[in-house]
Amino acid sequence: MSDIDKQKLESLKKELQKFKKGDRLESRSRTTPLGKLFDEIFKKINGYQSQSDIITYLYNNFDGDSNNNDDRIYKRSYVIEKILNYLDQIKILSKKIPNSNIISIPLYDIRIIGDLTNIIILQGIYSIIPNEFLIPLEKRKIKNFKKNSSLIFNKINLNNGLPIIEKILITMTNIFESNSDLKDLILVGTGFTDTLSIAIFLTINSNNSQFYMNFIQRLEFQSSTYQLLSFYSIMLKNCHQNLKFSSLVSLLLSNQLMKKNGIESLIDLVLGLREDEEIDISKIQYIVKVLLNSKPKNINLINYYKNIFNQIYNMLILVNRPLINTILVEIIVLIYSKNNRIIKDFLFSKIWFNLNPNLNDDYNQDFKKNIENDSIIITNGIDLNNSFNVCISIIRSLNIKDQEIINELFNPILLSLWYYANYQKSQNKDYNIILNLIKNIIILGDSNYFIDLIISNIIDNQMTWMFDNNKNDNDEKNNLTFIKFNTNELIISKENQILRLFDKIDFNIESFIELITKLNDSDSLYLNKILIEILNKLISNNEKNLEKNSSINKIIYLKLIQAIIENFKLEIENSPISLLIFANTYFNQYFDSINSKFNLNIVQDIDSDDEDNESVNNDINNNDEIITFLIPILEIISTLNFNNNDEKIQLENLQSILNKNENLIPQSIKYICEKIIKIDTKVVKVKLISNNLNIETILKQINDQTPSVRVYALDKLTNYTINNPNNEEKKQVSTKYTINLLLSQLKDSEPFVYLNAIKNIVNILSFDKSFLNQLIELYSTSKKSIDEKLRIGEILTKFVNINGKILNNIQIDELINICINISRSNSSLIENSSNDNNDIRMKMSSLSLLGTICHQTGYSIISHISQITDLVHGIITFEKNPELKRAAVVIINDIVTNDKGLEIIKEYGEKLQLLLEYISKNDKDLLVCQMSSATLDDIAIAFENKFQIN
User: Fold this and answer.
1) Per-residue b or e along 662-677, where b marks 16 or more CB atoms closer than 10 Å to that residue's CB
2) Which of 323, 337, 352 is CA-nearest to residue 401?
3) What is the pLDDT of residues 834-866, one digit of tens each?
4) In sequence order, what are the beta bridge partners of 95?
5) Alpha-carbon radius of gyration of the chain
6) Is residue 846 within 8 Å of residue 822, measured between CB atoms?
7) How far is Cα 567 from Cα 565, in angstroms, rounded to an integer?
8) Quick check: helix, strand or coil at residue 269?
9) What is the pTM of this model?
10) Cβ partners under 8 Å of residue 936, min gap 6
11) What is the pLDDT of residues 431-458, one digit of tens each?
């Protein structure tokens, strides 16, 4: 190392020695203006926390005039003004440098800022404003407020204190509006909400309310919707005594919901998404209640709902946020169940218009006046794509139980989606995502209706609007598909329109075959369902087939049947029930028609045998087209292998019909029909298969890419397991298999899937409690991921919550022991403990489960009460993690609020009560203090109720 390098190293060591651990702040060398300012402030305020008269102490340190020592109002005003001046100077000196990420305020000076704001809050705000207009101190965590001495302040007359809080409001608002590091440090901490409290208080308690309302708006502009919702929610809970105050806070709270991120912030706040809490679906009910009852008074109901559902719509556009979208869809479902018109008018209507514009006559006339313009856009590419994304987000989180909503939403737009898919395909764009959406709609909605709708409208014959795109634009953003007015309708002749429809037939049938393939991959029953529907339409004699389009429809149906048989011949041969049903129906009608005609001719002319035969032959010739397409169907039937008894019965019926009318069978199919008649059904063995469940279909659907289809399969499997309780050996799927399959879904990344898996496992456990031990073992000692174990813990908690009263002592013993073991997993007393159990999340989960057990199982916990109280006492006394201490306090509350809580707790009651009384006053975590006080109140209420009963 060179001498120069050595000198640099020594110089650096000397510089670093100034900051060695243990150096006091005042001993450090400070050269910058900001550093010197912090040095000055520290010397002035150091030691204030231990003073009994903080204002006098600071007044003297700030070199206040000794002539005013007896004027307490003046001294307070002087001290607060000095501190405000210090903060103003820090604001100026910590101004942000453009294009720089350097923070000008050192970490070790942040506590000085905290001291300054805390003094202002207590000595300048809480000492002046009445308590009912402020957040109670015990409900907030203020840095350095843990020592009783720092909480000391004397209330002064409000009128004398008004100039002080006005100065605080003006100075602090200017700081929050500045572009400084100081603003960033205090905006989300103490100080901001207190300044906002001043503005609210002065708005309703002064003659110039609009002036102070302007301060509220300025402050709100600087904060996040989430923080404001949280603050106003707390304020609203504490201001019921003052109607004017509560009305203003309620209005301010409602106004937050109207912001573009209001609903998302409400969801974050209520469900604790920012704290990464497990989702509690029951809390969504509260969100719905807030949304339906929080309309601001200054806006009408229609505009309020428009705003709310525009926010929901815009959030659903983002399809890659499964958690928030699952919550949003649950909100939609709950509101729909209460008032479906709200959802239809303010959410669905926007989707409907964008995907299927309803152009009335006046609208059309306006376009016809501008016929020369061939690109009049009705739905632009962005709106069309956004509405499609919303459909994707909604269908991903709906289930078969939500069929009414699915039918309501997609009935008006299913055909539009079908035509959209075909258009995208014609432009070589991604169309499979649209076909997948249509597949999911059919599976989860009214399958028969939606299948019939598409089959009846394979070809787009509506002429009011059409899909298009900017084909010559290479920019992908500008090349989105859009919907425009169909000016071609006005200039193309009817003959050419028909020719264009014929050109689409083969193309759209090819797309339909792709759709059938997707449906068949999910459930083979759809192939039979579709085939029967098309065959029935072909031979239908209702009035629909007499309309002008019947000839085109006939061609379409024939081509569809031909394409299905060609593409799914193997599947049809393995399950020919649809062909057998059709053949029976067709030949019944065909022979009935021929016989009726024959009998009618006999009545008209009993001697005209030649004419009768000629008439019969004419009828046969008129059916030549259908008879021709019958040949491949009959060939399949003539060589089929039976899968079940239903197929055998259908074949025997067909043989009977053909036998009775053998002389009327057309020559072109006579040979095949004779072959069918000769099949010996008596020597064929058939497999008896239950129609209740097809496990292959279930497995296909569980592996489907759409969460709602996966949940649909899980629900079917669960319902089958619960509804077939007897004879486990004869069931297609055992309960154990179902449990294991559901457990495997707990690691699914989609919240909609794992939340429903949790629900289904709880249902099965409630039906068959013999699997409880398996769940307990997986929860405590398995090698599953922590996330899976936490979800198993949620299963056990929900299960106990439902079944706690009927569990036996052995089951309760197992549950309590495992909870205690996990809670003490870092103890040397516990053997064979999983390393995962040391994780704070597992401990919290086990304590939550233990609390539920204590609350729900009555006397059954008596034999464990000693262990439980020792655990709780140990956690509260020795545990440093505040979350675990809070959980332990909750367990005491769960025991006390048990129906027999006082009898259960017995001689341990006094010990726990003394512990709660101590920590309610001395614990460093204010939330622990608050929860302990609340539990003491519950104990008092329990004693009072017990006394009244006796």
Assistant:
1) eebbbeebeebbeebb
2) 337
3) 566 778 899 999 999 999 999 998 888 888 999
4) 180
5) 38
6) yes
7) 6
8) helix
9) 0.83
10) 913, 916, 917, 920
11) 999 999 999 999 999 999 999 999 999 9
